[in-house]
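Consider the tokenized backbone below.
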């Protein structure tokens, strides 16, 4: 018997529906990534290895934000490889996929790398971050690291750092002659230029070297981190101005092949985790430095004062000469150097009429609010 058109459509609809219901469920397995990250820091070191914005905090944020699609096991310096071998290890990609450290540790690979930690007499936290994110800094950083098969992420900032700890007072440029000082990056080259002897030591060795006199002075981070390392027990002269590191930033470097194996959403998660660490690390340390400085001065008899102006001028002139020389030798250094200082000049004009003007006008008024 012939089926009329209405019954035919009804039967077809039911059959189609039954087919959909009967189809097996398709489950897509989530791809997961189990990575290793080495660091240049000793175990338990606040700010760098543990605490807000640290290597372990970055790993935790990535794991939580990715719903465990990326799991990162963190190894402190010496647990898997020595402190300063992370760059090569990540570049090769054979042992580890990431390393947490500072770009100026790799100045031997590329002089331009240290612009992405800090530059003597350069920009503070606000200006530096503006250059990185809005002034082309990030793109230049990726260009510098591309030949090494690395993708860089900015993950932390200490803000302005004190000059460091000295076993004897520094009253003139003559006092720097032959002085052995632990300091990394371009600032070490500057000290060498004025007659000192710069040494690069990992954090785990700084206190012991200063205490036993193997070095005469040491730069580390700032009041809170320096106190945690015990540097006030090895030297009592603590100098300020921050000429050498006005905005010291930390990095996570990622093996490029490993990075490119990630889906776009996981790459975005890693970038956002890094950005969160950058802000929280700076805020965390800013919140602790003032209390730590008061404690060092009042309870540990630390002598805290600025370096004399004539020393600062000599260090500035040496910095300018070194940067100009390196820029003439290497087109990529010149490209980064020009971008950095051109942005600083513009930002300085704004900062002079915003942060600096405000702080100058209201200096010491905060105390009166408590009166």
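A designed sequence for it:
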């Amino acid at each position: 018997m012939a089926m009329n058109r209405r019954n035919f459509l009804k039967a077809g609809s039911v059959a189609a529906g039954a087919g959909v219901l009967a189809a097996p469920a398709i489950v897509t397995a989530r791809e997961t990534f189990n990575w290793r990250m080495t660091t240049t820091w000793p175990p338990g070191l606040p700010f760098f290895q543990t605490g807000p914005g640290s290597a372990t905090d970055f790993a935790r944020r990535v794991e939580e934000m990715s719903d465990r699609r990326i799991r990162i096991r963190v190894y402190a310096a010496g647990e898997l490889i020595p402190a300063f071998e992370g760059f090569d290890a990540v570049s090769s990609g054979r042992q580890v996929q990431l390393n947490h450290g500072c770009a100026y540790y790799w100045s031997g690979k590329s002089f331009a790398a240290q612009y992405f930690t800090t530059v003597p007499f350069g920009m503070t936290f606000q200006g530096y971050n503006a250059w990185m994110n809005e002034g082309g800094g990030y793109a230049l950083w990726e260009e510098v690291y591309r030949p090494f098969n690395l993708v860089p992420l900015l993950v932390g900032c200490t803000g302005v750092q004190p000059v460091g700890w000295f076993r004897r007072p520094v009253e003139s440029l003559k006092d720097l002659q032959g002085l052995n000082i632990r300091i990394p990056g371009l600032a070490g080259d500057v000290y060498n230029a004025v007659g000192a002897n710069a040494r690069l030591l990992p954090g785990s060795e700084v206190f012991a070297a200063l205490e036993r006199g193997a070095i005469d002075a040491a730069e580390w981070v700032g009041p809170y981190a320096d106190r945690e390392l015990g540097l006030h027990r090895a030297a009592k002269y603590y100098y300020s101005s921050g000429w050498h590191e006005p905005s010291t930033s930390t990095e996570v470097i990622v093996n490029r092949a490993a990075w490119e194996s990630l889906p776009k959403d996981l790459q975005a998660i890693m970038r956002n985790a890094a950005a969160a660490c950058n802000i929280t690390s700076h805020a965390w340390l800013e919140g602790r430095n003032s209390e730590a400085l008061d404690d060092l001065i009042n309870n540990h008899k630390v002598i805290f004062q600025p370096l004399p102006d004539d020393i600062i001028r000599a260090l500035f002139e040496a910095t300018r000469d070194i940067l100009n020389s390196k820029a003439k030798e290497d087109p990529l250094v010149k490209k980064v150097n020009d971008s950095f200082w051109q942005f600083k000049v513009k930002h300085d004009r704004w900062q002079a009429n915003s942060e600096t003007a405000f702080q100058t006008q209201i200096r010491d008024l905060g105390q009166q609010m408590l009166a």
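DSSP finds 14 helices and eleven strands in the chain.
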